[in-house]
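Example 4.3 (complexes with small molecules)
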Amino acid sequence: MEFSLTKEQKELVEKARAFTKEWISPNAAEHDRTGEFPKAICAEAFKQGFMNPHIPKEYGGLEEPVLNHCLVMEEIGTGCTGIGTALGSNGLSQYPVIFAGNDYQKKKFLEPMTQELMFSAYCVTEPEAGSDVSRIKTTAEKIGNDYVINGVKWWITCGSVASWYFVLARVGDKPTGFVVPADTDGIVRGIKEQNLGQHASNTVRVTFEDVKVPQEYRLGEEGDGFKIAMKTFDHTRPGIASGANGITKAALNIALTYAKGRRSFDKKLISNQGVSFKLADMVTKLDASRYMTYLSADLFDKGQDNARQAAQAKWYAGEVAMWAAVECCQILGGYGYTNEMPAEKLLRDAKIYQIYEGAAEIQKMIIVAKLMRTKEVH
Amino acid sequence: MISDLMKLVDKFVGGFKKRLYGKTFFCPVCHLELSYYDVDVNGNLVCPLCGVVIELHETYGHSIPIVNDVEINRAQPKKRLHPLATHFPIGLFPLAFLGALIITIASAYIKASGTNSLECGFCRDISPVLDNITWIFLFIAVLSSGFTFLTGFLDWKQRYGGRPYRVITLKLVLSGLFIGIGIVILILHPVVFTAGVIPFENPVMIPVTFVYFVLMGSAMFMLATLGHVGGYLVFGK
Ligand SMILES: Cc1cc2nc3c(=O)[nH]c(=O)nc-3n(C[C@H](O)[C@H](O)[C@H](O)COP(=O)(O)OP(=O)(O)OC[C@H]3O[C@@H](n4cnc5c(N)ncnc54)[C@H](O)[C@@H]3O)c2cc1C
Ligand SMILES: [Zn+2]
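Answer. The structure with zinc ion bound is encoded below.
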C-alpha cells in the first residue's frame, strides 16, 4: 500500500493549483454571474495540458492515468466546478471512442482534439430517460450504408460548443453508440439552460432530425451501445468525484479562513467548538472522500474492476460536498448567504454532484448490485 | 456592428481597469469593487462607500473579505459642495464641445461655398454669437473644474481620511489633467475661431483645428470617466 504521490504527480498538483489560483478562482464569480462559457480559460488549460488527458499517445494525447486527472480536477474544482465541468467534460464523450472506437474513428475524432481547442459531448439522457437509460427512444434507422438518427437528447453538457457528439440510439431494439459530427444537417442545438449552479458550464438540448450518419461512425457493433455508455462511467466517475472533492476543499478553506478572521463575543469564531468541530468534520470527510476517489482511479489505472469503488466515490464525494457547502455557509453566517462571497456559489454548484453521471441513488444501486454478488465483505 | 464596438470599448476599459486596480474584490456590504492595492500593510481596508473595515484574506485565489468593524462617524462632505460643483464642468463642457463642432461645420460650409457667397449669410451671422456663448461655457467649465478639484480634495482628506484609494488617485490625476488641458483649450480657442469662424482659407488652420478637437475629445473622455467614477464612489454598483 502506497499513500504518497510520485514526484511528477506532486509537480502536476502544484501546476494545477497555480493555474486554479491565477485563472479559475478570480474569474469564477464573473462566469457564475454572466453564464458565459469560459473559452479563454479552456484555451489556457489546453495550452497547459489540462484538457483531454486520457487520449492515447498514438493519437497525440497525454494518456495520463485517471488518478492524475483526479488530482487536477480536485484543484480546478477548488476554484470553480462550473469552469471545471466545461474543461473536463470532454472525457465523457471521448472515452466511448477510446474504449470502443477503431483506429479510423480515433484518428478522425480524437487526434484533432490534441491539436486545437475543441469540445465534444455525451448525448445519452433524454427527456423521458435519465437514470433508466434503457428507456431511451432515439432511433437510428439503417438505410443503405448510413444510419438516420431521430430523437431528443436533454441536458447535454457542452452541447452547444461541441464539434461532435457521442449519441446513444436504438437500431431496432438494440442500443447502439455513434459518433456524430456537430455540423451534420438536422442537428438543432437548444439554448443554454438556466441551472441552479455551475453557470459556466453549458447545458443544452440537442435535437436530431433525420441526421444521416455513415456506418463508419458506429462504435462497436449494433447493440453494444448500452455497455459502452455505462462502461464509460467507471472511467469518468473518479474525475467527477474529484470535482466534488474540490468543492469540499474550497468550503473547508473558505470556512477556515473566515473562522480564523471573524470576531464575535470578543473572540475569533474558531475559538468556539461549535464552529471548529465543523472544520474537523470537514477535513476528515474530505480525506475519506479523497482516498476513496484515488483508490477508484488507481484500480481503473491498474486495469481492475472499479465499478463499486467509482460509484462509492462519486456518491460519497457528492454527499460530502453538499454537506460541506452547507456548513461553510453556516460558518459565514449572513456572509455565507450573499452572492458577494464565494460560499453560496459552492452550495449551488455542489447539488449537481448528487444528480449527473448517475444520481446518488443510482450509485447505491450499483454498490448493492456488487454486494449481491459478494458472499462476505472483507 | 454596435455590439462589436461595445465589445472593443469593454475590452479597452477592462484592460485599463486591470492595469490600474490590479486584482479586485467586492465589498460584501455595499458591493463596491475594491482594489487589492488599497489594502494597507496590516491587510485592512476601509470601504470608501459604506465605511466597513475589511480584513482581506485569500484562499485558493478566492478573496475572503472579513468585516470586523465599521466607521460610522464619517465626516459628510462640506455642504455637499463637491457633488454640486461637479455639475458645472460636466454640464457645460459638453455644450461647449457641441458649440465648437457646430461652428466648425459652419466654417467648413462657408469655405466650401466660397467666402463671398450670399448663401452663407446665416452661418456668418450666427457663428460669432455661438462662438461667444461657447467660449463663456468653456471658461466657466474650466474655472469651475478648479473649484470642483479643490472641494473634492477637501472631501478626500476629511471623509476618506486621505487614504490613497486607487479610484481617488485616478480622480485626482484625471481632474488635474482636465484642468491643464482645459487651460490649453481656452488659450487655443480664440486662435482657432478667429472672428467667430475658423478661417479655413489659411491651410494651417486644418491641423490647428485637428489638435483643438483632439484636446476637446480627450477632455470629454476624462470628464466622462470622472463622472462615472465619482458616481460609482457615491452610489456604488
Ligand atoms: C447540469 C446537467 C448536466 C448533464 N449533462 C449530461 C450530459 O452531458 N449527457 C447526458 O447524457 N446527460 C446529462 N445529464 C443528465 C443526467 O445524467 C440525468 O439528469 C441523471 O442521470 C438523472 O436522470 P433524470 O434527471 O431523468 O432523473 P430520473 O431518472 O427521473 O430520477 C429522478 C430521481 O429519482 C431517483 N431514482 C430513479 N430511479 C430510482 C430507483 N430505482 N431507486 C431509487 N431512486 C431512483 C433518481 O436518483 C433521482 O433522484 C445532465 C444533467 C444535468 C442536470
Ligand atoms: Zn462597502
